[in-house]
């Protein structure tokens, strides 16, 4: 399944707030559609499959990954010791596009992906143009010197966003570092990762 490139508010109306996808706020709380809110189905209980699918879609759209990538991450999480759901979130948090976003170098993960694709981001002083690159502990993320002026504008705009405890940042030099694996409480999206693991239990 290809990466979603359509209207982002349409996704927010269906799945709720996704800070990695967009900072826009949605006034309408019901899913998009030509008939508006469906009165007959409001308050109706969702099936177990629908609940699990919704949580999986939250993860996909927030981090901007494809279905194939997410399945690969679930398989990798299952091979490690510990809670599969938490390990899955930690893997997604170590993606370079997510770290660039969490450091405040870009307003959203799609914007961070564009910075990386265009060669503005360095990892350990080496240019990396792969958004899905998985960073390791003690990796240093920096910005190309000629690109610092417009990235500082993003930092000024979103300076109110708190820096996660597993990351370190020098905003003057536009340098960040991965200190440790991301603790569960620092995950930026409201999600039940156990339902995601259950969704893939028969597929992976």
UniProtKB/TrEMBL annotation:
GO cellular component, one term: small ribosomal subunit
Domain Small ribosomal subunit protein uS4 N-terminal, first and last residues per copy: 3-93
GO molecular function, one term: rRNA binding
Family of this protein: Belongs to the universal ribosomal protein uS4 family.
Purpose of the protein: With S5 and S12 plays an important role in translational accuracy.
GO BP terms: ribosomal small subunit biogenesis; translation
Gene3D superfamilies associated with the record: Ribosomal Protein S4 Delta 41, Chain A, domain 1, RNA-binding S4 domain
Predominant location category: plastid
Compartment(s): Plastid, Chloroplast
Record keywords, A-Z: Chloroplast, Plastid, Ribonucleoprotein, Ribosomal protein, RNA-binding, rRNA-binding
Residues covered by region (Disordered): 27-46
Domain called RNA-binding S4: residue spans: 94-156
Name of protein: Small ribosomal subunit protein uS4c
Species for this entry: Marvania geminata
